[in-house]
Amino acid sequence: MVNWRKSGLTKLATTLIGILGVTILAGGLVFGQNFSAAISGFVRDATGAVIPGTTVTAKHTETGLTRTVQTNEEGGYTMPQLPVGAYEVTAEKPGFRQQVRSGITLVVAQEAVVNLTLDVGDLAEKITVTEDIPIVNTTLNSVSGLINEKQIKDMPLNGRSFNDLLVLNTTVNDNRSNTAAGGPAYSISGKRQETNRWTINGMDYVGTNSQGTANAPNGMSDQLLGVDAVREYNVLGHTYGAEYGKRSGGQVTVVTTSGTNQWHGAVFEYLRNNKLDARNFFSTTEG
User: Fold this and answer.
1) What is the Cβ-side half-sphere exposure of residue 219, based on CA atoms within 13 angstroms?
2) Residue 167: left if φ>0, alpha if ψ -120 to 50, beta else—which one?
3) CA dihedral of residues 28, 33, 34, 39 (deg, nearest 10)
4) Which of 106, 165, 211, 216 has the fewest CB atoms within 10 Å around its CB?
5) What is the pLDDT of residues 64-108, one digit of tens each?
6) What's 144-256's CATH class?
7) pLDDT tens-place string over residues 272-283
């Protein structure tokens, strides 16, 4: 006699294991995409000698997330796959004063180089340095066009769609008038619009084809993700690194807004009627 209950449980367990495996693999693929940021650098003493074995901690000030690494024998360290945002970096080792570096803001696809110098002294003593790390990619020579959080939130948009800000980059041309559907379609660095690659939090938007349909991410209203849902995005037109690819056109990397330790929100309203319009010059004053 067949034990159907046991067979059903076995199938259920197999299905759950399969789902778990796909989730793990998908997570690996997501982190393989370059939609996060990184910090790297060297730790030296006042004489310029490297200090191996130093504990370096990066704290994401918006969420409290921390990442801790040790410097190698050459005094270097690296922290890949960090969420974008503001950071505070701390370096400490017995026999040296603790150094805290604040004012570091990471943007999508950036690797900021943060070098630290420790002075001899008691570990309980702390030296705090506040500075702004320039929003430049100091380790790669990709020509990038960052659309930052302030631009997305503050610039006026007809439709409140993040992709309308692509044209802030000089290499981007809005081609929606040349498409049959009239949806969002952009040519980057003179390349065909269907060759662009769009990723949202590391996941690919597959796109469509060259038969007159829009190939940028869009919904039924020809828009996708209001400006409140997108934190920032980066546009690479050419000469990008080997971690990019799959398509030969522009690489648009989007990072959505995530939660923080602070309560926040936004309210907006559309007001589109003729009550506030200027009077037509040829209209009569009556009526």
Assistant:
1) 8
2) alpha
3) 10
4) 211
5) 999 999 999 999 999 998 999 999 999 999 999 999 999 898 888
6) mainly beta
7) 777 777 777 777
Measuring CA to CA, which residue among 199, 30, 40 is closest to residue 110? 40
Nearest CA to 69 out of 83, 59, 79 is that of 79
Placement of tokens 């430049």 in the chain: 136
Torsion of CA 40, 120, 61, 71, to 10 degrees: 30
- Name the CATH architecture for the domain at 37-130: Sandwich (2.60)
CA torsion 23-28-34-38 (nearest 10°) is 120
Q: Do residues 79 and 38 touch, judged by C-beta distance below 8 A?
A: yes
The set of residues, in sequence order, having a beta carbon less than 8 Å from that of 84 and lying 6+ positions away, is 36, 37, 106, 107, 108, 110, 231, 232, 255
Tokens of 105: 């803001």
Cα–Cα distance for residue pair 118/131, rounded to 1 Å: 17
Q: For the chain, how long is the longest CA-to-CA vector?
A: 93
Distance CA 142, CA 145 (A): 10
pTM of the model: 0.69
Where do the structural domains in the chain lie, given as residue ranges? 37-130, 144-256
